[in-house]
Amino acid sequence: MTVLTLITLYAAFRVKHFVCDFLLQTDWMAMNKGRPGREGYKALVSHTVLHGAGTLLITLAFAPGLWWLGLVDFAVHSVVDRTKGLLTYNKGWKYTDRWFWWSFGLDQEAHNFTHLAYVIAIAAARGGIIPGL
């Protein structure tokens, strides 16, 4: 895998994350995915299935044999978002609270590192980062 392909792959995951986490996430998803009970899980799954589908599309384009990373992303994104959502909900943190933003930042970085792991897995499946090194 060339450096340009590697950068393109990483950019694809970052764009996927922006689209799914901000452009396609509805107010209902954002406001309810951290709530306890059925409504919370419905909102969470509605949101994280988008991430899984986005990862599936990327892996099909770069390494079709790793299609299952879409399922992994669905699961990992669900755990990260649910943990952050429940913590924020239970603590009563609002967007005006410092702790809300710290938890939001930690959530985003967890997703960022997850995407880095997917890039490494895809690069390894395609024969490595840079042939000959």
What is the count of β-strands? 0
Global morphology: elongated
Domain count: the total is: 1
Helix content: over 70%
Low-confidence stretches: none
The string of secondary-structure elements, in order, is: HHHHH
Q: What is the tally of helical segments?
A: 5
Terminal Cα span: 11 Å
| Gyration radius from CA atoms, angstroms | 16 Å
- Share of β-strand residues: under 5%
Structural class: mainly alpha
Main beta sheet: none
Mean pLDDT over the full residue set: 94
Notes on the structure:
With 133 residues, this protein is mainly α. It has one domain (3-125). It is 77% helix and 0% strand. It has five helices and no strands. It has helices at residues 3-23, 27-32, 38-62, 69-91, 98-125. α1 (3-23) runs antiparallel to α5 (98-125). The longest helix has 28 residues, at 98-125. The chain is elongated and about 45 Å long. The chain starts with a helix and ends in an 8-residue tail after the last helix. The model has no long low-confidence stretch (mean pLDDT 94).
Pick out its properties.
elongated; mainly alpha; 0% strand; single chain; 5 helices; 133 residues
How is the topology of this model organized?
Layout: H1 3-23, H2 27-32, H3 38-62, H4 69-91, H5 98-125
Summarize the structure.
This protein is an all-alpha fold. The chain contains five helices and no strands.
